[in-house]
Amino acid sequence: MAGLTNPEIAKIVDRYIGVSDGYLGNFTYPSHADFYPEYCELDIDPNKYEGTTRKRFITIIKSSSPHDQAKIVRGVLERFPLDHQYARPETRIKELYEELLNIAQRLEDTSPILSPEPQISSAVVECAIADGELLIQAGNAVSGVDRIHTALHGYLIAVCDAEGIAYNKDPNMTALFKLLRCHHPKLQNLGTRSNEIEKILMSFATILDSLNPIRNKASVAHPNGDLLNEAEAMLVINVVRTVLHYLDSKFVPNPS
Fold first, then answer.
1. How far is 134 from 64, CA to CA, in rounded Å?
2. What's the count of helices (H) and strands (E) in the chain, helices before strands?
3. Measuring CA to CA, which residue among 71, 62, 76 is closest to residue 6?
């Protein structure tokens, strides 16, 4: 994923916010802790990290996904506007402000599809999604392929169990998806342009059929010599996330 580069982080820290005696802008430890939920809408606790506010900020922004990095950059611009005079470095100028806005937009444009939080789930599904998210944020999408594969497989089993749809022992994802298309009532009414939507669902089946060899032969699920490139690994992850988002929106129980 195309996250912030080290030079871009240096611009944010040293040239825009400003540093004095190792401390970032006019951040105190408490105000730095408040910054993430108040300005970035992120549940991040900098008190879990060692060092000055500058060191903690750099550690957090480096370890964040591009999506969250964009939120932090926009939070910085809101927390330290151009007319903010306290501890303002001379390098905090309009041109740099606009450059950081463009960086935030780039990060948002390259962010992956958000990780799903399926309402029909199981312990295996929740664990696999959580593990995969950590791997992806660490820049290890290839390892995340195995986790997202497990999440989707477990999800399809959970839906069949919830609906009482019987399946054979050790079913693969393609077989489970076919059972759901044939027997789940919420996939029988596809609304407007149902013929075209049905074709998209058929393409989902083709995708699922491709995931097994990719996971088995090109991920770290097994000691494979040839692994997916990072871009292709994120393609697989984003496609599976799209499938999960769609299916869960269809299968979620109606409110009583």
1. 10
2. 10, 2
3. 62
